[in-house]
Amino acid sequence: MPVATLVLLAVLAFWMLGAHKRLKRLRSKTHHSYSPLASHLRQRHAVALALAQAARPLLSGEEQPVAAQLIDAARQAGRATDAAQARGMRGNALQVVGSAEESLGTLLDTLVGALQDLTSGLGPEPAITELLRQRDALQEQIHISRLVYNREAERYNHALHVFPTTLVALAWRFKDAPLLSGDAPLRLKTQPSRPMPL
Fold first, then answer.
1. Measuring CA to CA, how many Å separate 74 from each of 44, 118, 192?
2. What is the largest CA-CA distance in the chain?
């Protein structure tokens, strides 16, 4: 085999190895950037559970099921978040988190609506007011964490689709990282370029 061919093959092998390492590094940064978001979501789950428990004595008989549903939704969202992190966000893991968070958010808004006239005075009301303040603060933290995650995911996705790195991505089956968007705590993009509910 001619020396020029051997040199070309060696250069190609080194380039492919370098491209593979870069994609792994970018994918790892994307996965690590999900950790703060997951942490804020878990804090939100805890606040939702505490809010449901604190609200129970104040709710009418018709409103009691909302508190119970909120507790179930917060636990389901927690399990989905843990599973997504454990699986490295593979498959539809983030989509499951998104669905759970959307359900949790709807129930949380319903409970807050029922409590609007009960968050002043003495007794448990001041505690509820504090929990609502924590919820609002967490919404902002979740928004910021989502932006950080999206930035890393977009860098990784861009690298996947730049030729000839695309060939390495195909050979080693690198997948696009889902992007998150929306005003809800988590919404997932259906395609790399467009956010979808999470």
1. 8, 22, 28
2. 88
In angstroms, rounded to a whole number, what is the distance separating the alpha carbons of residues 41 and 186? 9
Neighbours of 13 (CB within 10 A): 10
Closest CA to 103 of 46, 184, 43, 191: 184
CA gyration radius, the chain: 22
| Residue 28 tokens, joined | 């790892």
Q: Each residue of 88-142: pLDDT tens digit?
A: 767 688 888 888 999 999 999 999 888 876 655 544 578 888 998 999 999 999 9
Contacts of 63 (CB under 8 A, 6+ apart): 114
What does the block give as tokens for 189? 């993009």
Q: Residue 136 CB: number of other CB atoms within 10 A?
A: 10
Mean pLDDT, the chain, rounded, equals 84
Phi-psi map region of 195: left, alpha, beta (phi>0 left; psi -120 to 50 alpha): beta
The reply to whether the predicted model has a pTM over 0.85 is no
